[in-house]
Automatic annotation (TrEMBL):
InterPro entries: MetI-like, MetI-like_sf
Superkingdom to which the source organism belongs: Bacteria
UniProt keyword terms in alphabetical order: Cell membrane, Membrane, Transmembrane, Transmembrane helix, Transport
Similarity-based family: Belongs to the binding-protein-dependent transport system permease family.
Lineage of source species: Bacteria, Pseudomonadati, Pseudomonadota, Alphaproteobacteria, Hyphomicrobiales
Organism: Mycoplana azooxidifex
Listed name of the protein: NitT/TauT family transport system permease protein
Amino acid sequence: MNAAPLLAAVVFWLAAWAFNEWLVRQHFQSRAVQQIARAVVPLLFGITLLVLWEGIVRGFNVPSVLLPPPSAIWQRLITSLPTLWADFRQTFLKSVITGYVLGCGLGFVVAILIDRSPFLQKGLLPLGNFVSALPVIGVAPIMVMWFGFDWQSKVAVVVIMTFFPMLVNTVAGLAAASHMERDLMRTYAANWWQTMVKLRLPAAWPFIFNALKINSTLALIGAIVAEFFGTPIVGMGFRISTEVGRMNVDMVWAEIAIAALAGSIFYGTVALIERAVTFWHPSVRGGQA
């Protein structure tokens, strides 16, 4: 056991904890400074976790095959940028983005059709709930058999995972407008399309964006898991499964870090778009107050 790294990590953790406790209690006059202070708190908390991780691993001499220190993961990440970029491009830019757009788009369109057809609403929604409960590890091998080993089969898995959350949330959102509001639109002689565009879709936006945010993480998980069952020699899932077999755990953690960063940025982008589109919603206005 090496006490010096462990002691240094504990001291840093206590100092960072005290500073965060002081920072969250401050009320700065400048709005910009206040926003910076809000961003510093989670950033410092994350850095503290990394420092503790480093100190514990080095202090207790944990074998790198079990848990490498963050410094080793960072070193592998820096030295493997071309490989990581190729994996990111294959998994995220091809499989995730394409499948996300197709799955969410199809779910939205089918929800509009279901709203016009009581038969589809009673027949397709229960089927959608059943299919959405299917495990991805059961669907992925079938999609690989149907669409081949390249990124097209991963897109199919992502479409299946994102279609039904968008479908169910959009249908629920379209039903969110009250009967009084719909009666008011009828008194204005508004047809179905005008009621949809001016009343029901705006009321459904919070539900739709909820599905978009859920799907932003489901799409990445589905694409990576699908690559475990057959893929060209590139991709995040392929790299993780291969490097685990080679005991290169630092490379596995580098891939996980890239995937987590990409997923967080994707989710944050959707959340920012939601704030711009649903600025009128009480949840957004309350957060801005």
